[in-house]
Design brief:
77% of the residues lie in helices and 0% in strands. The chain is mainly α.
């Protein structure tokens, strides 16, 4: 920290050589302690400066940094704001203020502070990336994209921008474009890539139903962390999408080894057992899910088990209760119709599907099934 920086923006206040040396020495000690996370000691040095020089910018920013380290963001903001009232171009204060606003979930104010920072340092990639991230979280797509691309204009391989653009397009369901950015990131450094990039690439393929490619990335993620929930879930769900239920079951059960009360996974395991015609195990897992909390799909699973066992009245009763709670869910009408068809009651099967269409909602699966029943 040189003398010029200590004096920056402090005119018309003047210091003699001894005062400058004193401020420099105390500031250096304070910031060194901050780096070592010894915030109480750092605070003493900065307060010593401020007691003698109440308008010193480094002491004000230093105390802001101390409170930011303590996560006292509003108190930190008061120091940064005092500094900026005296020295409007102090970038350290703008950066600290932006970080506090972000921590307080005031992204609009954070963006304003970051833009003030960029007036003095317009190509700072860290700050530009944070602005883009904030726009993304605020769902301001054009501004987010523009700012990420601004980062890539400066550094075409910038990992934060590539990852951010991937998430941006993923959030807007533009999975193919998201893949382009994430796969570029992976190609730049396949060995050093973060596990989250691997799982997000896998998730893109899962959304696009390119399950085999998704498996490739989820398994790479598993090499990093064999217990990673998102990798295990991704693999299980890809196998489920490929209708390889025996393989999917292996990974649902692996998740349950670490998280035995995850009712979503218990239900998925029940579904796999049901499709594999292991009805007793399927019932066990559905009931384990329901013992934790109400779960629509566990109840539906039990209804489908009753249907497979020929207990149609129980199946219909369970599905009707679900339908009454969620009358626009087309799945319930389809399963009810199938129950009536298995009972040989085509008229009732058709009536159930027509009831859904009478809601004024078009659904290709409902319409196709009704057409087929009426044509037979």
């Amino acid at each position: 920290m040189d003398n010029d920086k200590i004096l920056d923006n402090e005119t018309p206040i003047h210091f003699d050589a001894n005062e400058v040396e004193e401020i420099t020495t105390l500031s250096k000690r304070g910031y060194q302690l901050l780096k070592e996370n010894l915030v109480d000691g750092a605070e003493e040095y900065f307060k010593t400066i401020l007691d003698k020089y109440p308008k010193n910018n480094y002491a004000l920013v230093g105390l802001g940094d101390v409170e930011r380290k303590r996560k006292n963001f509003r108190k930190a903001l008061s120091y940064y704001t005092t500094c900026l009232n005296l020295y409007p171009n102090n970038n350290y204060a703008h950066f600290g203020a932006a970080d506090c606003h972000k921590a307080l979930n005031d992204l609009e104010s954070a963006i304003i502070s970051w833009y003030h920072y960029l007036q003095n340092d317009p190509k700072n990639l860290t700050v530009l990336s944070r602005v883009a991230d904030a726009y993304r979280r605020l769902k301001i797509f054009p501004k987010a994209k523009q700012t990420y691309l601004q980062v890539l204009d400066i550094d075409s391989q910038n990992s934060y921008a590539l990852i951010g653009l991937g998430y941006l397009h993923f959030d807007f369901h533009e999975y193919e474009t998201a893949l382009k950015y994430w796969e570029t990131m992976y190609q730049i450094d396949p060995k050093g890539v973060d596990i989250r990039v691997l799982t997000t690439i896998g998730n893109c393929h899962r959304k696009l139903k390119t399950f085999e490619k998704g498996l490739e990335y989820f398994k790479k993620a598993l090499d990093f962390d064999p217990q990673n929930f998102f990798a295990l879930f991704g693999i299980a769900d890809c196998y489920r999408g490929m209708l390889e239920y025996d393989s999917s079951l292996i990974y649902w059960l692996k998740i349950l080894e670490n998280d035995p009360k995850n009712k979503i996974i218990l239900t998925r395991a029940g579904d796999a057992y049901r499709v594999l015609h292991d009805l007793d195990h399927a019932e066990e897992y559905y009931k384990r899910a329901l013992a934790i909390n109400f779960d629509t799909y566990a109840i539906l699973g039990l209804a489908l088990l009753s249907k497979e066992r020929g207990n149609y009245e129980d199946a219909i009763s369970r599905i009707e209760k679900l339908r009454s709670n969620d009358p626009k869910n087309h799945r319930f009408y389809i399963e009810l119709s199938k129950c009536y068809l298995d009972m040989g009651n085509k008229e009732q099967a058709a009536a159930v599907l027509q009831k859904y269409l009478n809601l004024g909602i078009y659904n290709i699966y409902i319409s196709t099934m009704l057409d087929k029943i009426q044509a037979d």
